[in-house]
TrEMBL record, chain A:
<dbReference type="Pfam" id="PF04168">
    <property type="entry name" value="Alpha-E"/>
</dbReference>
<dbReference type="InterPro" id="IPR051680">
    <property type="entry name" value="ATP-dep_Glu-Cys_Ligase-2"/>
</dbReference>
<protein>
    <recommendedName>
        <fullName>DUF403 domain-containing protein</fullName>
    </recommendedName>
</protein>
<dbReference type="InterPro" id="IPR007296">
    <property type="entry name" value="DUF403"/>
</dbReference>
<feature type="domain" description="DUF403">
    <location>
        <begin position="1"/>
        <end position="310"/>
    </location>
</feature>
From TrEMBL, chain B:
<feature type="domain" description="Circularly permuted ATP-grasp type 2">
    <location>
        <begin position="80"/>
        <end position="455"/>
    </location>
</feature>
<dbReference type="InterPro" id="IPR051680">
    <property type="entry name" value="ATP-dep_Glu-Cys_Ligase-2"/>
</dbReference>
<dbReference type="InterPro" id="IPR025841">
    <property type="entry name" value="CP_ATPgrasp_2"/>
</dbReference>
<dbReference type="Pfam" id="PF14403">
    <property type="entry name" value="CP_ATPgrasp_2"/>
</dbReference>
<dbReference type="InterPro" id="IPR016450">
    <property type="entry name" value="UCP005522"/>
</dbReference>
<protein>
    <recommendedName>
        <fullName>Circularly permuted ATP-grasp type 2 domain-containing protein</fullName>
    </recommendedName>
</protein>
């Protein structure tokens, strides 16, 4: 398919997935904020985390003096000046979809366009009474879009690039959500293993819809190590890093064409590390350090996918197979 | 030229639906009964539903001069415009005749130029025309077809008198509205269709695909076809994307294509892939910066060379503009007689050429009654509609004419037919025109109907969407 089309589809999917995960991060922060905490600067500390995770703390501080719940929520959810706000993500997803109207079907376009029209209608009153309702809405729209895509789309490269975007973004986002724990939680050592700790890990699990799965898999109290194992290494956990890389790797294998060797190699390497990884090694390295390294590798993989498939290569370099075909013609 | 009687008094204007006695015409009787039995607020509600559908589907167009990315809906009117099968058959015949002659003319002037040699059209009209493309001289095209897609603008003045206003042979747009209007009507008024046998138009994309396929070089067995758009901010972008997806072909921009060894390729995720037919919705000027406008970033360097080498088909061909220019328009009836030896079935609007002295003095003396247009203008821009203009507008326009008379033509204000239309005040007659789309490949194909445009302001004759016009579904009834 056209490189530019693949590029737009890849980014359309990434933006939708990013909107969903941003909503998940805000949701967990919101739920954590409902816990009693009267320590000094608790609100600032708590609400700085989602800014940090989304990488938009600087942009926020340029506009606001104080880090406080309502302003952070607004900035991350709705501010058009923030390129990674949920609002901007939905806009970018729609712009990408609009650029390739011909490559997606009417139902997909209607779903994405309706989300965009709806968020614009919601803006004035958004999140005032029920922040969680808004986050639920974002998640639902993302689920709906994914459902429409899987339920209606021809299984060709257009779908492959959409899936590639979805799972690469999700791997990145799950790693960031896990890192929330490092950024916000546990102001004091005596909380470890306490009620607050339990609640926070629980909230984190819920934010990636993994709470019930945890119960099923471990039938045990919630421990940080097991949460990390579930969300990093368990291949049967849909939003885990391992599950995401499974999808990325198999999708890269079935994309047509002769380019992409290096992208496949990188994906394979990353996948193997998750497939054979042990949680003990990860905690020994330090969860935050492990996740930081993982995010860098995902970023490099994204760049390689761009070079292999999405960039327009100006030089005329037919593959051996194409040369053969051209001679036949 | 004979004196033209000025616009008919309002009561004598032909209405598509009602006779002058106020009865619904035969082919409109079911509609009058079914549609107009609904209370006005129910109709208004349907109209709002239609708008919501269009908004949801993103059937919008961008308006030049407004903020980048501003999207507007073209107003959709729910009262269809209906043709009986016999009157349509005659129109269809006339359209095919006209387009056949226009294609023959384009082939001729880019080859032997017999029509000039025969003295039917003066040489300067063609060879000095800005839209005559000398790069096309002597280039042979598959099937000798230049205007693969023609959008002929027609108006009706009386029951049997149709006039051709314009032949759009470059990149005519609007066909997506023809299709979406039908889809919307079927969704909102299924009962209305149950009571009529309305000829379907949904197969237009297939007809277009067949036409493009037939237009590839005969040496290619399985041509790769693409639609080429200037990009997402073009006013007709929705249509470009729509047609590409309906035909199942790639929608490309200039930057997706490149030329190597006089062949055109597109960048794909699997590497370069050769392209054989380009349905291009990019104007000539922007197609190839090495031949035409050097500043254009929309085109593909080397495209013209590949085209002249016969390695790619462009639809429509380069240089068709010389045949749809408003001063060449005057000669279309003569072309029909010259190439086909037939009498024209559809009439031209009587036209004054302001480069002629007598015509100029007549027109200057009658400006308030006439419509004056720029020879190469389009989209309803830059024209003067005498009867609805202020004395100052007329005086200003007179100055423009005097500065360069040969750039203008004038026509009488035609009494365009009206069709009942839902407006704020209720159902009222509004002027309409019609743009059918004629496809030329190995044969000529025509979807029954076309795009009916309606001037929504009372008394207005300007139907262009860029000037606030709306559209209607157009029905051709089968016997």
């Amino acid at each position: 398919m056209l490189s530019r089309t693949a590029d737009h589809l890849f980014w359309m999917a990434r933006y939708i997935e990013r909107a969903e995960n941003t909503a998940r991060v805000l949701d967990i922060t919101h739920k954590t904020s409902l816990l009693p905490d009267d320590s000094e600067g608790a609100e600032t500390h708590l609400w700085y985390a989602p800014l940090n995770i989304a990488g938009c703390a600087e942009g926020y501080l340029a506009k606001h003096e104080l880090v406080e719940a309502e302003a952070v929520n607004r900035y991350i959810a709705l501010d058009p000046d923030n390129p990674s706000s949920i609002y901007s993500c939905l806009m970018s997803a729609r712009e990408n979809a609009r650029s390739v109207r011909g490559a997606i079907n009417a139902e997909m376009w209607e779903s994405i366009n309706a989300s965009w029209l709806e968020i614009n209608r919601m803006i004035p009153t958004l999140g005032k009474d029920c922040p969680t309702c808004f986050f639920e809405w974002v998640k639902e729209r993302s689920h709906l879009f994914r459902g429409v895509t899987l339920g209606t789309m021809l299984k060709d490269d257009a779908l492959n690039f959409i899936r590639l975007g979805t799972f690469l973004e999700r791997a990145d986002n799950t790693a960031r959500i896990l890192d929330v724990k490092y950024h916000i939680l546990l102001p004091s050592v005596h909380d470890v293993g306490g009620a607050a700790d339990y609640y926070q890990w629980g909230a984190l699990l819920k934010s990636v819809s993994a709470f019930d799965a945890y119960r099923k898999v471990y039938r045990d109290v919630i421990t940080p190590q097991k949460v990390a194992e579930l969300l990093i290494l368990r291949a049967d956990m849909p939003r885990s890093l391992h599950a995401c890389l499974n999808e990325v790797e198999t999708t890269l294998e079935i994309i047509n064409g002769f380019s992409g060797r290096e992208a496949r190699r990188r994906a394979g390497e990353l996948h193997a590390a998750l497939h054979f990884g042990r949680i003990e090694d990860i905690t020994q390295q330090g969860l935050h350090e492990y996740l930081t390294e993982f995010l860098e590798k995902v970023d490099l993989l994204g760049q390689e996918i761009h070079t292999s498939y999405l960039a327009r290569r100006e030089e005329f370099a037919p593959s051996p197979m194409q040369k053969m075909l051209m001679q036949v013609q | 030229m004979d004196e033209i009687t000025p616009a008919a008094p309002v009561t004598l204007i032909y209405d598509e639906m009602y006779t002058s006695e106020g009865a619904a015409r035969h082919h409109y009787q079911n509609i009058a009964r079914q549609l107009f039995s609904l209370p006005l607020d129910a109709l208004a509600q349907k109209q709002r539903e239609a708008e919501m559908l269009f908004r949801r589907l993103g059937i919008t167009f961008a308006v030049y001069g407004e903020a980048a990315g501003a999207e507007r809906l073209i107003p959709f009117d729910i009262v269809p415009r209906v043709f009986g099968s016999k009157e349509w058959a005659r129109l269809e015949q006339g359209l095919k005749q006209r387009v056949t002659a226009l294609n023959a003319f384009l082939h001729d002037i880019y080859h032997e130029q017999n029509i000039i040699k025969a003295g039917v059209i003066p040489a300067h009209q063609i060879l000095d025309n800005k839209l005559y493309c000398k790069e096309m001289q002597g280039v042979d095209l598959p099937n000798q077809i230049y205007a693969h897609i023609a959008g002929i603008d027609l108006v009706r003045v009386t029951e049997n008198d149709f006039y051709v206003l314009e032949d759009n042979l470059r990149t005519p747009s609007g066909v997506s509205y023809m299709l979406e209007n039908r889809r919307t009507m079927m969704r909102l008024f299924p009962d209305l269709f149950a009571g009529h046998s309305v000829a379907p138009v949904e197969h237009y994309p297939q007809m277009l695909y067949d036409t493009l396929r037939e237009s590839a070089s005969p040496y290619i067995s399985d041509p790769v076809i693409v639609v080429m758009t200037p990009g997402a901010y073009n006013s007709a972008y929705f249509e470009h994307a729509f047609l590409a997806s309906q035909m199942g072909v790639e929608l490309v921009e200039g930057k997706d294509l490149f030329v190597h060894d006089d062949k055109v390729y597109m960048h794909t995720t699997e590497g370069p892939q050769q392209v054989h037919v380009i349905y291009r919705r990019v104007d000539d000027d922007f197609l190839d910066p090495t031949v035409f406008n050097p500043n254009s970033a929309l085109g593909v360097p080397g495209l013209m060379k590949a085209y002249r080498a016969g390695n790619v088909t462009l639809a429509n061909a380069v240089g068709t503009g010389v045949a749809d220019d408003k001063s060449t328009y005057l000669y279309v009836p003569a072309m029909i007689e010259f190439y086909l030896g037939e009498k024209p079935i559809l009439s031209n609007v009587p036209t004054w050429r302001l480069e002629l002295k007598d015509d100029l003095s007549y027109v200057l003396a009658h400006l308030p009654e006439l419509v004056v247009k720029e020879v190469q203008g389009s989209g309803g821009y830059g024209m003067l509609v005498g009867p609805t203009s202020t004395p100052k507008e007329i005086a200003d326009y007179r100055d423009r004419i005097l500065a360069d008379p040969s750039n203008f033509i004038a026509q009488p204000t035609l009494a365009l037919s009206t069709c009942p239309t839902l407006v704020e005040a209720g159902i009222a007659p509004r002027h309409v025109d019609l743009r059918p789309f004629v496809l030329s490949g190995k044969e000529i194909r025509l979807a029954p109907g076309g795009l009916t445009r309606v001037a929504l302001a009372e008394g207005s004759l300007i139907v262009n969407s860029s000037q606030g016009g709306g559209t209607k579904d157009t029905w051709v009834l089968e016997d």
